[in-house]
Amino acid sequence: MLKAVLLLADVLPHICSLSLVFQKRDVHLGNIRTSVEKTVNLLTTRKTQNGPWLQKEEHLRSTCNITDPTPVDFDTKVRECFLNGLIENITVRFKDADTIDQLAILDLTGTDNIETMYGYTEIEALANTFDMDPETLLIQWQDFIALVSSAELTDRSLPSLLELFHSPCHKDKNLLSMYPLVAKLFSVAIIQPLSTAEVERIFSQVKLIKTSHRANLKTQTLTKILTVKLNCDETKFEKILDQCVTTFFKKKNRRLVNVV
Ligand SMILES: *[C@@H]1O[C@H](CO)[C@@H](O)[C@H](O)[C@H]1NC(C)=O
Ligand SMILES: *[C@@H]1O[C@H](CO)[C@@H](O)[C@H](O)[C@H]1NC(C)=O
């Protein structure tokens, strides 16, 4: 049925552009809600307004001599049902969009002068969502952004700020015990599985490690190798590999099979 194909052609670009948001390596948390809302709005419009392809229906019918009949109830039975289902699915998939939007304030990239009240509304909402005492969280947050302001950090992205809590060079300040609730929010924000780029990166590494001659690698071993490979740079990985080989050969009575 021509009309159904044209409807799909009108809808797919909107789904694709939403999907592209998630294919970037660094998906910014603050873009999620707007992108989802924009897609839902556009899809809602398609219920009553023809997109560019459906507008060409008559033209296509005459130039390509397509005479298949359009059911009279196409709009109610096909178009509306399909779009409602699609919108419902997208909404369910991103039911946490509000929380993700609030978590976005933790990324302080580009905030040169952080105002004292920065992010208070979001922090209160987050306290509510994650069952924290709002007052305690607000105090910790205020102290934390004051510290970031004075620390003159060049990189104020989410991973870099999370590092403040865990990197050895900041241990003396003991930020983790000073701002435990803020640290918790950072941990939640960083593990949001938003970017599909990361997933693809991991799968391509699995393929590289699990080459055909090592196809019988145990899952446990594969996980260990992957953890090392994904968390250190190429030179470090090679160094670790060298050390492993050295250790391997130091052990007595190694029986080498199939060495080429
Ligand atoms: C269009 O298709 C119909 C039936 O499929 C055929 O009878 C007619 O000749 C076609 N017209 C043209 C211009 O090709
Ligand atoms: C919505 O999701 C369900 C379950 O995954 C699926 O069967 C259905 O085809 C989806 N509907 C649309 C319109 O994408």
Automatic annotation (TrEMBL):
<keyword id="KW-0732">Signal</keyword>
<dbReference type="Pfam" id="PF05699">
    <property type="entry name" value="Dimer_Tnp_hAT"/>
</dbReference>
<dbReference type="InterPro" id="IPR012337">
    <property type="entry name" value="RNaseH-like_sf"/>
</dbReference>
<dbReference type="InterPro" id="IPR008906">
    <property type="entry name" value="HATC_C_dom"/>
</dbReference>
<dbReference type="GO" id="GO:0046983">
    <property type="term" value="F:protein dimerization activity"/>
</dbReference>
<feature type="signal peptide">
    <location>
        <begin position="1"/>
        <end position="17"/>
    </location>
</feature>
<protein>
    <recommendedName>
        <fullName>HAT C-terminal dimerisation domain-containing protein</fullName>
    </recommendedName>
</protein>
<feature type="domain" description="HAT C-terminal dimerisation">
    <location>
        <begin position="168"/>
        <end position="229"/>
    </location>
</feature>
